[in-house]
Amino acid sequence: MNCRHCGKPIRSFNNYRGEEDWTHEDQMVGMWCQTTAAEPEVVHLIADGEAVTSCCGRTPFALPRTERLTVDPTLANCEAPTPTQEA
């Protein structure tokens, strides 16, 4: 089965309570898909143990809730300027 919102494959499984749940690329989706076709997902790079992102120098709390964090540089796609580039 594919997601009606973004077209990505989803599958059902039984959660720890024995109830049917849905997974979307191995992430729980619940009722609604969190991916929008109009806006690509922004992924920020953060080094393990660091307090700010390596890509744009923001704390995880300053990022929009729809954006993600990774420690893998190959997955990061943030193009925001770092604080030193803004001046």
Question: How would you characterize the overall build of this protein?
Answer:
With 87 residues, this protein is mainly β. It contains 1 helix and 5 strands. It folds into 2 domains: 36 residues, no CATH class; 48 residues, no CATH class. It has a 3-stranded antiparallel beta sheet with strand order 1-2-3, with no helix packed on it.
Please describe the structure with a list of short key phrases separated by commas or semicolons.
1 helix, elongated, 87 residues
How much helix is in the residues? under 10%
From the spread of the alpha carbons, the general shape counts as elongated
Number of helices: 1
Low-confidence stretches: none
**Strands across the major sheet, in which order?**
1-2-3
Structural class: mainly beta
**Which radius of gyration do the C-alpha atoms yield?**
16 Å
Total individual domains? 2
The largest sheet is: 3 strands, antiparallel
Q: What is the CA-CA span between the terminal residues?
A: 49 Å
What letter string, H or E per element, gives the SSE order? EEEEEH
Mean pLDDT: 76
Q: What share of residues are in beta strands?
A: 15-25%
Can you count the beta strands?
5
